[in-house]
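Schema walk-through. Below, the input block comes first and the output block second. Nothing else is stored per chain. Lengths vary across the set, and this one has 161 residues.
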Amino acid sequence: MKNFLLKARIKQWHSEIKTSDRVTKHDNLQLIKSIKEKIEAGPANDDDRDSRIKLLQEMDKLATFESFDLFQKARVKWDIEEGVWISDPSQIKEEFLNFFKEKFKDHDSNVVFPPFANSSGLCALDRDSLETPVSLDEVKNVVWIVVVSRLPAPMGSLSLL
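--- output ---
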């Protein structure tokens, strides 16, 4: 029952905000129009110019909020059409975890680089070591070394290897 009341209150709040934004937008358009007429007639001053700039900035901010709102609505609509809507926090956490597990799971695909064309400056052993496959653990270790080396002094002295 609390979820229903909360949802109803959020809808009411959203409706009030949208109405307020529409009224503000209409009022701003009227003020911009009157300032434009004043400018065309000639008696406009610096205060009118500043007011016009502020009104245009506020109109831009309202347009940005409106586009964010439309984007969010489209996203929710797409999510609902594409799958099941999940609202249970434990299920959300599970889906979140599974999504990122899949994104970051270990791939045993080795990148194959072509042989170096002009590697005459390297001995055969060095050339061979540059062309050997690199394991995921080796990459992780190097990344951790770089991260740890950039930490502030007390933590930077820690060894993660």
